Amino acid sequence: MHDYDDLIAYFSMEIGINEDIPTYSGGLGILAGDTLKSFVDLGMDVVGVTLLSEKGYFYQRVDEEGNQHEQDSEWSINDFMKKLDVKVEVQIENRTVYVTAWEHFITGVNGKRNKILFLDTNLEENSEQDKQLTSHLYGGDLDYRLKQEIILGLGGVRMLRKIGHNPKKFHMNEGHAAFLTLELYKEFSEIVDIDTRIKKIREKCSFTTHTPVPAGHDAFDKTRAKQCLGNMLPPEIVQMVSEKEKFSMTVLALNFSAYVNAVAKKHQEVSQLMFPNFKIDYITNGIHTGTWTNPALAKVLNKVIPDWKKNPLDLRNVLRCPVKEIMDAHTQAKKNLINHINVQSNAGFDYDIFTIGFARRATKYKRADLLLKDVERLKKIDKEVGQIQIVYAGKAHPNDTEGKQIIKHIHDIFLNLKNQIKVVYMENYNIHLAKYMTSGCDLWINTPERPLEASGTSGMKAATNGVPSLSILDGWWIEGCIEGVTGWAIGPKILNETDRNLINNFD
After folding, report:
1. What is the pLDDT of residues 24-67, one digit of tens each?
2. Among 3.40.630.190, 3.90.850.10, 3.40.50.2000, 1.10.3720.10, what is the CATH number of 289-504?
3. ω into residue 448 within 30 of 0, thus cis?
4. Residues of 142-162 as b/e, b for ≥16 C-beta within 10 angstroms?
5. Rounded alpha-carbon distances, angstroms, from residue 474 to 34, 99, 343, 361, 403
6. What is the mean pLDDT of the segment spanning 179-200?
7. Average model confidence (pLDDT) for the chain?
């Protein structure tokens, strides 16, 4: 057995590595994948821990009426990872659930390899119900989510121990992973004094909170949490993390982490207002530039800034690149996008028309339809300023009725615009489509309801490809916007009274 004391364990409910492994739903998972890729590029010893999600989040279809339909994602697990001959046990509702793991390696720019463990309960020893616990990412109801998070937290730590890892640090990427602290609490049971025990665990844990939206902070019924976790959930922990009769995963993670960060400077301010009893720092999200820079632009960068993949800080020297070559690279990326749109949707987009892109999870606060609020004004801009065409993409959670209505609303508006402005809603937004859109659009739009956009990394992907943003001043864009240079701002920079009231009135 190797000594892995220098290892960092990075726990995340979802991890997006590439489009062939659909174990992610959106920004959180893509960020996790980009972070793990950056770790290995930097030569850091990190192991990722997540759920297999063998049927993915879901495969999205949008019918001719604009209605979203969900299908299971079909992918060949064996082509991308190896099943380990190892099992651990987790108790859920006083019964044993067996967990195995699949191993996938990612390789850095210098050849270093780090592994990701994908936890799997689809084993013959388990009941039919328990076999499904790692089938669908964010599938089912809150009870299903609770059991999944038990698998991730308790099962993840036990799996690491089983295969010989003894991480010096545990990083929780959002509160979904917070049950790992209960396993550590048990491991430190020889320390009788509770405050001392908690201090020891805090020294080993860090936590990243990603959203001010209530739906992003899982909270379970206390009685149900006790039923599922049994003696793994001691009464002193229940008392510590209870909020409004709910067991809060975010508060659990906050209590057991020596370091907590938000994902943008603005988000830190919002998070601190939400959780005033905890010290919250910020590290503004980033992206893995090697993944998201389009091939045509990468060739230009390779010639002028040869080490940009090894040291992304070198990208500040992009001004050395000939403007014509950058423009030619964008023209090629745009042609690739337009070709993809036309092949996939028969939308008849044109290479020479100004192309606006919007791709986000379809949910109310993202306000995907804000751009289309005044259709007549949009038509006037198209007629008097210059022709435009608009490409949309994004999934609504299967249980998000409002989100689905937004997709349908956008579709209905299309019908009013189709004789003048071409608009398309691309199905099944994923990493593959995101690469086309963030590099090939001429303008990137983001219009969330302030202050609910924690970061918004799709705009960073666009910026990496030389595409400017027109966006609400929220999340990372407050830090990234240089008016008229990197793009254009919508709204004031500082939190106003409306923003503060919205935060204070969270459920």
Report:
1. 998 899 999 999 999 999 999 999 999 999 999 999 999 999 99
2. 3.40.50.2000
3. no
4. eebbbbbbbbbbbbbbbbbeb
5. 22, 40, 35, 16, 21
6. 95
7. 93
Q: How many C-beta atoms surround the C-beta of residue 200 within 10 A?
A: 14
Q: What percentage of the chain reaches a pLDDT higher than 90?
A: 89
Position 506 scores a pLDDT of 44
Q: Judge contact between 104 and 17, C-beta under 8 A.
A: yes
CA 79 – CA 102 distance, rounded (Å): 11
86 in helix, strand or coil?
coil
Q: Are strands 113-120 and 88-92 parallel, antiparallel or unpaired?
A: unpaired
Q: What number of H helices and E strands is found in the chain?
A: 19, 21
Q: Is the pLDDT of residue 6 over 90?
A: no
Four-residue CA torsion sign, 40, 45, 46, 47:
positive
pTM (predicted TM-score): 0.94
- pLDDT at residue 23 above 50? yes
pLDDT above 70: residue 480:
yes
Residue pair 480/472 in contact (Cβ under 8 Å)? The answer is no
Q: For domain 8-282, give the CATH number.
A: 3.40.50.2000
Find the mean pLDDT for residues 144-169.
97
Six-digit token string for 269: 């301010």
What the block records as the tokens of 59 is 């495969």
User: Helix crossing, 180-187 with 194-204: angle to 10°?
Assistant: 130
Peptide bond into 322 cis (omega under 30): no
CA distance 345 to 86: 45
Of the chain, the end-to-end C-alpha distance in Å amounts to 48
**Alpha helices by DSSP H, 275-362:** 289-292, 295-304, 323-345
Q: How is residue 325 written in tokens?
A: 């070559």
| Percent of the chain surpassing pLDDT 70 | 96
| Cα separation, 45 vs 2, whole angstroms | 13
What are the Cα distances from residue 138, in Å, to 14, 41, 145, 398, 432? 9, 30, 6, 9, 21
DSSP string, 5-70: TT-EEEEES-----TTS----SHHHHHHHHHHHHHHHTT--EEEEEE--TT-S-EEEE-TTS-EEE
